[in-house]
Amino acid sequence: MLASTSRLLPSPRPVFVPVRTYAMSLNPAVVHPRKSVPRRYSERKTYLYNQYTRLLQSSRDRPLILFEHSDFSARRLIQLRADIADAATKHAKAATLAAPTPAPAPRAADTLPTFTILRTSIFGVALRELSPLGNGAEAELATSVDSTLAVLSFPTLNPPQLKAVLRVLARSVPPRHPKTPEEIEAQKKAEEAAFVPGRRPKRQRPTPVPDLKLLGAVIEGRLFKTEGVKSVAELPTLDGLRAQLVGLLSAPASQLSMVLNEAGGAKLARTLEGFKKSLEPQGQEGDAPPS
User: Cβ atoms within 10 A of the Cβ of 52, count?
Assistant: First the structure.
């Protein structure tokens, strides 16, 4: 009797908990008692994990610019990658003869940045196990993620190239602006005017508007926020910094050489004599004037 009664009892409904598919967790993996250890993953997940691990390992030499993206179609992503390639080509590092030994010219694909869409959960696993940043930077990055991630990997740190690419991205994908109260009111009035009693309203699929937001960057093993990335983009190139340093070091010598070239003969003697008098200590106030 009890068995038959228990069969008639309604089974509890499953509880669906909303899960953020873009969430990045750095917590240790949960070990299930009924599953074998180590856990075996599919080929796709293994490939993505190895790819993200190589990206993080190369962040010491190859800057990684992190973005949050949403509502991108395949065609829009192809156009975005083409815009990035066009902007980066104009500021690609040209071949130079200053090297002590001639080096082969790099391929075009090796000098352009790569825009990659990330699986945020797998990227979080690679970030947790590799831990390339340290000092709690991984946790700070994980808590700041609010959408799906994409990474822009540069072959080398080239601030003018980074600035050009960021400018093109801001022009190609302008930031979203929230609707004003006037726009909300106009949309509400249009919906009320289109409503007909007894007629099913026509469903219209909204046109997706892509959005791309700069989240930060991993440069030389350090995590930079949005403002830090923009500051790095304003820096000159390494060759420009070297030229400025050489100019600062050679400025005193060039000024001395210019003075010596202008002062010749008696003028040089008067210049040195005046310089000598300026270095001599001045006489005391109580000294008698010379006769």
Answer: 21
